[in-house]
Design brief:
heterodimer, A: 132 residues, mainly beta, five-stranded antiparallel sheet, three-stranded antiparallel sheet, 2 helices, 8 strands, B: 385 residues, alpha/beta, nine-stranded mixed sheet, two-stranded antiparallel sheet, globular
C-alpha cells in the first residue's frame, strides 16, 4: 500500500477542484501544470474549476477493478466543464441507461473507494445529472 | 546515417505459457532470431517490456535477459512505452545501427502476463493511463477505448457490426497463423453476443492477455548479404510520437493524432504515401482501435474507417490488407512483444514466407504500434531491397 502522501498530495484537486489558468493564453489546466504546453510559459494563477458541464462521451463499465466491483454496471464519462476544462468522472445518481452524450451534469464531492479494511477512505469528484 | 536492414526474426507460439518463465520465453525467441539471421554474435540488445515489475515482480530485466541469453557483457537496454514498447525497442536498435555505433543488434520484446489473475492484469495494464485522473475515477482500459468507440459511432454512424467485423477478419487471418493464441474463426453474432465489458465494447472486441516474446536482428544494409543468407528487408521509414497521457485532454478523442504524426514521419522518411503500402500490421488492442488507426494512417477518410473491415477492403486479398497475422485480437497481445511481432509479420510477408496468409506481390509493408489510449505510437515502413 502507498504511503498516505500519495493520497493527500492530490487533495486540492480531488476535494476543491483546483486547477491553474495560464496568464498568457487564458487556458485552464486540470490538474495544474508547471509549464503551459501552448506557450511554454510558467506564469499561472490558481483557479477553481466550474462545477457544471456536459458529457462528451461515456461508457458503461461492466467489468471493473476489485475496489469498484460492487458498483457495476456504472457510468464513466469525459465531461467538459463550462470553463473548457475536461475531466474523466464517474456518473452517479443516474441509471446507466439514462446516461446520454450531451447530458448536463455537475460535479459533486463523493466517496470514491476504500483502500482495504484498514486503509484510507478515498474521496473525490463524481458527476451527477444537473436537473436545475 | 547508415541504411538498416532486418536479417533475422524469431517468434514462438503465443498464449498461456504456464510451463515457461519470463526469461525462458524471451531467450527462446532471441535464440530463434539469431539462428534465423545466421550471425555468430550480437553487439547490443534492446528489449521492449511494459511492466515485468507488476506482472512478475522483476525489474532490471535487461541484464537478466543478456545473462540468460549468454551474451554478457554486451550493452542491453529495456525500453518502455506501454504497449508500444516493442516498436520503440526496434526504433532504438535502428538508431544505434544507423548511427554507426554498433553493427549487429537484437531488438526484442517480452511480456509474461498470465502469472497475474485477470483483475490484477487489468490493473497492471491500466497503468498505461493516468492513474490519478483517469483510473482513480473508475475508468478501465477497455473503458477508454469504449469512450472513443461511442464518439465514433455517434458522430460517424459506425455500427457494432462494423466493430465486430474487425475481430472476425483478424480471427480469420489468425487461423492461418500457427503461433496465434486464438487461431480459430469467430462470427459477427458471437462478437455481439459475447459478454459486455465496457459498453459498447464486448469481450470479443478486446485483445486477450498473453504470454509471449519476439525478436529481430538488424544490421547495416551494406553488411546484410555478408552476415546472412536471408534476403535483407530494409527499414526505410520510422516515426514515433507522443500525445497527452489522458484521453480527456485530447482535442478530439476520436482522432488518433499520435498515429497520424508517427505515420507522417515514417512516410516522409521513406518517401512513401498510404497508397504505396501493400500490407500493414496495426495495433487492434480493441476493434475500434483498428478503425481509428486505418483512418490516421491515411487508408480511409476521417470517420470512414468503420466499413474497411466489413467491406473486405482490409482482408488479405483486399486493397490494403491489415493484420494478416491475426492482429492483437487473434495472435495475442503480450504488450511489450507486440511491436516486434508486427515487424516480424511484415518481414515474413516481404520475404514471401507468410504461407497461407501471404499477400501477393508484397513489396512495401508498414507497422503501427500504440501505447495507452493513443499517448504514444511507433510506425515503421519496411521494403524489399
Amino acid at each position: 500500500m502507498s504511503t498516505p502522501a500519495r493520497y493527500w498530495r492530490e487533495i486540492p484537486q480531488r476535494y476543491r477542484y483546483e486547477g491553474v489558468k495560464c496568464k498568457e493564453s487564458g487556458e485552464i489546466f486540470f490538474p495544474p501544470r508547471l509549464v503551459c504546453p501552448t506557450h511554454k510559459s510558467a506564469d499561472f494563477e490558481k483557479i477553481n474549476l466550474e462545477t457544471e458541464g456536459k458529457i462528451l462521451t461515456y461508457t458503461i463499465v461492466h467489468v471493473a477493478p476489485n475496489h469498484f466491483r460492487d458498483l457495476v454496471p456504472y457510468g464513466v464519462a469525459i465531461v467538459e466543464l463550462n470553463d473548457g476544462a475536461k475531466i474523466t468522472s464517474m456518473i452517479a445518481d443516474c441509471e446507466p441507461e439514462d446516461i446520454k452524450t450531451g447530458m448536463k451534469v455537475r460535479i459533486e464531492f463523493r466517496k470514491i473507494y476504500e483502500m482495504g479494511a484498514a486503509g484510507i477512505i478515498c474521496y473525490g469528484y463524481k458527476c451527477v445529472p444537473d436537473l436545475t | 546515417m547508415r541504411d538498416v536492414a532486418v536479417i533475422g526474426v524469431g517468434i514462438n507460439e503465443w498464449g498461456e505459457l504456464w510451463e515457461k518463465s519470463l526469461r525462458d520465453i524471451f531467450v527462446e525467441a532471441a535464440v530463434k532470431a539469431i539462428g534465423d539471421a545466421g550471425v555468430d554474435h550480437i553487439d547490443s540488445m534492446y528489449i521492449g517490456n511494459m511492466s515485468s515489475g507488476l506482472f512478475v515482480g522483476q525489474e532490471h530485466i535487461a541484464p537478466m535477459m543478456a545473462d540468460y541469453l549468454g551474451v554478457t557483457p554486451i550493452p542491453c537496454t529495456r525500453v518502455e512505452s506501454a504497449c508500444a514498447s516493442g516498436g520503440a525497442a526496434v526504433r532504438q536498435a535502428y538508431i544505434e545501427v544507423a548511427s554507426g555505433m554498433s553493427d549487429i543488434i537484437l531488438a526484442g520484446g517480452v511480456e509474461k502476463m498470465l502469472d497475474l489473475d485477470g483483475s490484477e492484469a487489468t490493473s497492471a495494464l491500466a497503468t498505461a493511463a493516468d492513474q490519478e485522473y483517469e483510473v482513480y475515477n473508475g475508468v478501465t482500459f477497455p473503458g477508454l477505448y469504449a469512450m472513443i468507440a461511442r464518439l465514433h459511432m455517434e458522430r460517424y454512424g459506425t455500427t457494432p457490426e462494423q466493430l465486430a467485423a474487425v475481430s472476425v477478419k483478424n480471427h480469420h487471418n489468425g487461423k492461418m497463423n500457427p503461433n496465434a493464441q486464438f487461431n480459430f474463426e469467430i462470427t459477427i453474432d458471437q462478437v455481439l453476443e459475447s459478454t459486455m465489458v465496457c459498453d459498447p465494447l464486448h469481450l470479443l472486441d478486446c485483445s486477450p492477455i498473453t504470454d509471449g516474446a519476439a525478436a529481430v536482428i538488424v544490421c547495416p544494409l551494406e553488411m546484410a548479404s555478408k552476415l546472412s543468407k536471408n534476403p535483407p528487408i530494409k527499414i526505410t521509414g520510422i516515426g514515433q510520437a507522443t500525445d497527452t497521457i489522458a484521453l480527456h485532454h485530447r482535442k478530439d478523442p476520436a482522432w488518433l493524432n499520435v498515429v497520424e504524426i508517427a505515420a507522417q514521419t515514417a512516410y516522409k522518411m521513406a518517401g512513401k504515401e498510404p497508397k504505396d503500402i501493400d500490407v500493414c500490421e496495426v495495433h487492434d488492442c480493441f476493434s475500434i482501435a483498428e478503425i481509428c488507426v486505418v483512418e490516421a494512417l491515411g487508408f480511409a477518410e476521417k470517420g470512414q474507417g468503420g466499413c474497411m473491415a466489413s467491406s473486405g477492403r482490409t482482408a488479405i486479398d483486399g486493397e490494403i490488407p491489415v493484420n494478416t497475422s491475426g492482429g492483437l485480437k487473434s495472435k495475442g497481445h503480450p504488450v511489450g512483444a507486440t511491436g516486434v511481432a508486427q515487424v516480424i509479420e511484415i518481414v515474413e510477408q516481404l520475404r514471401g514466407t507468410a504461407g497461407d496468409r501471404q499477400v501477393k506481390n508484397a513489396r512495401t509493408g508498414m507497422t503501427q504500434n500504440m501505447g495507452g489510449s493513443g499517448a504514444s505510437s511507433v510506425c515503421q515502413i519496411l521494403e524489399v531491397v
